[in-house]
Amino acid sequence: MASLPFTHEEYRKRQARLLELIPTDGLVLIPTNPLAIRSNDVSYPFRANSYLLYLCGWADPESVFMARHNGDSWITALFVQPRDTKAEIWEGVRVGAEGASTGWPVDSAYSITDLDKEIREIITDDTEIFTILGLNTDLDSVLEGLKTSDPRKIIDSHRRLKSKREVELMQESAAIATAAHILAIKSTFPGIGEWQIQAIIEGHFAHSHSQWSYPSIVGGGDNATILHYKSNDRVINDGDLVLVDAGCEVEGYASDITRTWPVNGKFTEPQREIYELVLKAELAGIEACQAGSVWHSMHRATSAVLAQGLIDLEILDCSVEEAIGDGGDFNGPYRNFFMHGTGHFLGLDVHDVGGGRQGDEDGGPKLQPGMVLTVEPGLYFGSWRADIEIPERYSGIGVRIEDDVLITDEGPVVLTAKCPKAIDEIEALVGSAR
Ligand code: GLY
Ligand code: MN
Ligand code: MN
Which of 16, 28, 340, 364 could form a disulfide with 360 if both were Cys (CB 3.0 to 4.6 A apart)? Predict the structure, then answer.
């Protein structure tokens, strides 16, 4: 029996919650992600599609989850890579259709080479097809010309509410990412390369039998003002801050932490002013994560603190209302320095499904116990900005602080609470492992 992170019962419940909203003449076909070529015959490491992981825990490439109704009940199946000695000699032993049908929470399994034949046998003129197009070209061509619907909206509304076991895995993921950040802070010194901090963080992920959930962002000085900075190839100078945004996956479940610290262990006065302001905003954002509040509450909370702070620091010269935006559109001049949302759902995808996006109507989804999200305000004063005047005092400073938060009836629970963020704690920790 394969070792899956959830009981078969939990997977079967997830399948049932989807299928009770699918008409009985429906056919559900959910393919996994395609393998992506890195060079010639070398692929990027494969990462299964989160919907497949969610519905049945199947993590191997070239596969499709299927559900159809036989008139009495739903039957679920997996199409998987067949056993193949030649391929297995190079890539490892495959589970195969027989192994999939006995070890995974499905009723039957087939070779992926039979996908075309099996599907054509099932489909009639009345079949309503629920699928995700664009992931599996073979499946797309079988379905070409047929009307299809997307089942993701239904699954997303379930995925955004985490079970007890999902929360356990996310807590584990948060603990590994927390330890990685602490190790990085302790190992930092002026002159360290951004890539070296990345290696410390990702080394800890690998050592913990984990892997990154998104490419690690390690930006020193001005690089901290690039929101999704990726090159991580500069030396960090004495006197600079470094912003590290890095998280990992446990059984597919992501963590996502950002910490910002001075490489020499001492915040300058301007760095401290911005850091304290972002921290105050982050704490207000976390406090706003209450069951029953709308999603947008936390963005309102962080925005109010940041706008007021930018005025107090004489970076903006206007009222809080004007800073946030006429009519409360959250697009006022404070946006020059805080250009992203306050957070996102977190789960099998680091930017998880289920809404909570800019532009959601009526303030977005209501927060419910079991939801996990990030709170991650920041302020960025890139010296490279040509479109606005950056105050000299703050030029080259970028600060973001990000934690992972579980919504409960008793209030927000910070899964990453052990990752230090108070100025005193951070200053005491920087370089302490050297
Ligand atoms: N690491 C990307 C984000 O924080 O959303
Ligand atoms: Mn992040
Ligand atoms: Mn994030």
Answer: 364
